[in-house]
Amino acid sequence: QYASPAAASLQAAYEIAQLIRDKQAKGERAVLGLATGSTPKRVYKELIRLHREEGLSFKNVTTFNLDEYFPMQPGAVQGYRHFMQENLFNHIDIDQANCHIPDGSIPTELVRSHGEQYETMIADAGGIDFQLLGIGRNGHIGFNEPGSHSSSVTRLITLDMATRMDAAAEFGGIANVPKKAITMGIGTIMKARKIILLAWGENKAAIVRQAVEGPVTEFVPASWLQAHGQVKFMMDDACAGELT
Ligand code: F6R
Question: Taking every annotated instance into account, which residue ranges of this chain make up the domain Glucosamine/galactosamine-6-phosphate isomerase (predicted)?
Fold first, then answer.
């Protein structure tokens, strides 16, 4: 629990930087699972600062993003490729060829094999060392909406109305929010060696309490994380307000 989102974000960025440097020292690559949305933006800002001011290099880093809307054109401003370029990739020395995001622009019939390829690419990279997560107000992680199975893999899902409503402002109205998304599965996320979930503000307090203190249930996908040995929930005071 942290006094502010900024304080928690600095700590999360520090842990990521530490992993990258440890791997660098061993001549290995660091494989990061990344999230979009408002929550991780400050983490990315701090990573950019560490790159600019403290020489943190991302040359040995491979990234896999959690999810992308479907359908979504690669250049679209609401798309997660655009989000990652703007908020991180354009400002660091990462090789863009090592930055993976599910492709929301492929035809529906190719999504299944795309999901399988995504899983294979993660496995071929050696698996995810560190996964950064946010949480939806309905408890989703990635776009694994309530009902997602614990062994689910990268696949096409139908977005909940609540998720689409939360995205409506960005798309200029709910009618413009895609109805589907491609997301890593709960099973994909649970294979990450270390996980940090970030959550800020009182509007996430109730779902964070359910995820941390409630039963492990598919109705709160983030509650599956209770079964992971190396997971940390980082939140600000406002978000921790309902924890006992
Ligand atoms: C984003 C993602 C989602 C978000 C969640 C919270 O890649 O996978 O699970 O983390 O919807 O979104 P924000 O941070 O905008 O509240």
Answer: 5-230
Whether 229 shows a pLDDT value over 90: the answer reads yes
145 is catalytic: yes
Task: For residue 134, give the ligand 1 atom closest to its CA.
Answer: 10
Whose alpha carbon is nearest atom 9 of ligand 1? 142
Q: Which atom of ligand 1 is nearest to the CA of 133?
A: 10
Q: Mean pLDDT, to the nearest integer, of 177-204?
A: 98
| Predicted complex ipTM | 0.99
Structure tokens at 24: 């660098």
Burial zone of 133 (CB within 10 Å; 0-12 exposed, 13-18 middle, 19+ buried): buried
Confidence of residue 126 (pLDDT cuts 50, 70, 90): very high
Q: Cα(98) to centroid of ligand 1, in Å?
A: 22
Categorize the per-residue pLDDT at 74 as very low, low, confident or very high, splitting at 50, 70 and 90: confident
Angle, helices 41-54 vs 80-87, to 10°: value is: 40
Q: Which of 170, 192, 171 is nearest to 66 (CA)?
A: 192
- Tell me how far apart the alpha carbons of residues 20 and 119 are, in angstroms, rounded to a whole number: 22
Q: What is the mean pLDDT of residues 212-221?
A: 98
| 69 class by beta-carbon count within 10 Å (0-12 exposed, 13-18 middle, 19+ buried) | buried
Mutate to test the pocket of ligand 1, among 9, 32, 36 (most ligand atoms within 8 A of CB): 36
Closest CA to 128 of 212, 232, 29: 29
Q: Tell me the domains of the chain and their CATH numbers.
A: 5-242 (3.40.50.1360)
Tell me which of 109, 116, 145, 242 is the catalytic residue.
145
Percent share of the chain, pLDDT over 90: 99
- Provide the token pair at 146: 């309530």
